[in-house]
Amino acid sequence: MNPDTLTKIVKIGRKVDPIIFKTLAQASSSTFQSPVTYHFKTGGKRMRATLVLIACAACGGRIEDGMNPAALVEMIHNYSLVMDDLIDRGLVRRGKPTVRVKFGDSVALLIAMLYREALDDLIEKCISPNKTRAVAVQAMKDIIEGERLDIMFEQAGREDPYLKAHRTLNPSFALYIEMIGKKTAALFKAASQIGAYSGRANLRIIRSLGEFGWNAGLAFQIMDDVLDICGEETGKQIGKDIVEHKLGNAVILTALRYLPRPKKSEILTTLRSEKVSRAMLMRARQLVMETPAEKDCREIAGKYLLEAKAHLSVLGKSVYRDGLATLSEAIVSRTF
Amino acid sequence: MNPDTLTKIVKIGRKVDPIIFKTLAQASSSTFQSPVTYHFKTGGKRMRATLVLIACAACGGRIEDGMNPAALVEMIHNYSLVMDDLIDRGLVRRGKPTVRVKFGDSVALLIAMLYREALDDLIEKCISPNKTRAVAVQAMKDIIEGERLDIMFEQAGREDPYLKAHRTLNPSFALYIEMIGKKTAALFKAASQIGAYSGRANLRIIRSLGEFGWNAGLAFQIMDDVLDICGEETGKQIGKDIVEHKLGNAVILTALRYLPRPKKSEILTTLRSEKVSRAMLMRARQLVMETPAEKDCREIAGKYLLEAKAHLSVLGKSVYRDGLATLSEAIVSRTF
Question: How many CB pairs under 8 A join A and B?
């Protein structure tokens, strides 16, 4: 697929915005419109909406039939982002103040709760509301559980009594995969399946597209972890995961397996410090970069991406099937 | 209805607890059970569950058919309570530490989000899932809007930029009724209607029971306001609404209409003080008590209660119809 086609794909996702704004207007009082819509006006790539739309088309469905489902998945994603910023006390997202900073924690919480009710209205407008709801609700349960596992991977920095008593001190890579599966891959899986429902796909195709989304989601999150520690591409603060005490990062976890005990302890001490200084961060990064962890993780992400694309073989040949492959590559490589 | 029958009614509501615990167990991972179930183990009268069950029976339904719907309404209520404690930074509820105090804000937020997904599983098990969902989702939208109006009635005490810029400085009694209608009465209305659905009632009865619940809910909230300022019956901290800067209290609003300008200003100054001292609280209470506001509000609550009971006339005579009347009286008078 040439870059022009990719540009078109990117723009498709944005077509759900009018649906989202209309849904929010109907679900909330007129005086609350400006705070309720703010988050969606700060940007966002609508990556998951694009996934739903292309999956729908790849199953032989009409793009129009995928619009409400795509808006739904995007609403779920943004519901989780506003809540995530409350949990992480996030200040900036998409280069703008987070909802909680702009309006306050209490108001942000009410806005996120409203997204949860508004998305139910979108489910009613999907082609298979019952199946779509089952997948959407399961994805939201998974996101909640993934978020719980994620904050339990943190080694310091929160006052929550539950977390202090139940931190995950020595996680396996398998537990890490479980965490990112729920936190991130579950919604990619749901997006692909909901797209397939809108395209009236058969059960075999729905399952395969679910596997496609799941594996692409894992690859995406692992690359997100790689870029957090090793990258400069995203323009985000480098080593944010280290500053936020997160042991739930693929590169850190992999590096710890390579490093001799004293260096391993040094990284863990940094993660367990209430305040991680710039010097501590740079030293921890340097220790991680001494190992082949980045290369390993890029390879693991590559394998998940290959696995994802292999599941597309159940689909008939079409520009949209190729589009799904291109989209998954673009998502994982961050060229989307 | 004699006191024995009332005791039986009270105990009926508690029968939903096993359903709630089973639903939560199925919706969350085994290691999260203890935090997830804590809130329901701290007590609660299951007043709204009782309302669903008696409404179901009064429409000719079987109590068994009302069980999942009753558990659903109780789950909605408790979802809103955990969120409310996050918004109000609540420390104690039902004489026990709130979920946020016990486990931390982040974990409490995840628990509340999980309640929202778990209650969707309960909707699927109701007799009319689609109608029940429509009523339940509308009630949750109303609760969110009611909570927003409620915190906008506060005159100080929050850092949220949105609230600081949009406080309701001079509310009418009509706006107050709109606020408590959404915050409180909407769920009483939904409980009555969902009970009627489970009893397979016709549209006329469903509508009347909705009116019954709505009016009983308004009466309940107005009496809640009366007891906050004037009462000692509930064992709660007296004048909590004044300490929390809430102008959205029926008695305070009514008193302000009676008081001469200097005394009115004094109360407003107290509500607008960042820290309300014991002396300021007692003085504001005394000023309110000088007026007939308590008497007025008890009369208004009484009128809503009468209106509620009048709507029961569409039902055939039965011990359950009488039960609904008794229940509404007990709820409003706090003898439940």
Answer: 103
